[in-house]
Structures are given as structure tokens and as C-alpha cells.
Amino acid sequence: MAPPDIVFLFAASTALMSPVGYQTNLFVYGPGQYEFRDFVRVGRLIQLLLAVVTTVGIVAFWGL
Fold first, then answer.
1. Does the global pTM surpass 0.90?
2. Which residues contact 9 (CB under 8 A, 6 or more apart)?
């Protein structure tokens, strides 16, 4: 079984649906005149993909 801190690390590194989820998102949020919904619209697909890949990867590497 995966150590809980590793699981939380993977989960926290995939926060892409918010401009405050990652520092690079904040860098472009203001100057690019993006709105919050822009991050949700683009980030939800990437978030879903990474959620599946992360879950499968953790199970494959550490097992259940």
C-alpha cells in the first residue's frame, strides 16, 4: 500500500482547475486577463486525465 503522504503529494500536484492551484497559474492570471472559468474550462480535462493516470500509477506501483 502506498504511504499516505505520497498519495497526497500526487493529488496536490494536479490542482489545475484554479488559478491559485499552482504558482505558474497565478503568473499568467492577471497579465493574461484570464477569468476563473477559463482555468476551470481547460483544467477540468487535464485534471480528469491526471486523476486517472495518478490513481492507476499508484495502484500499479504500490498495489492495493
1. no
2. none
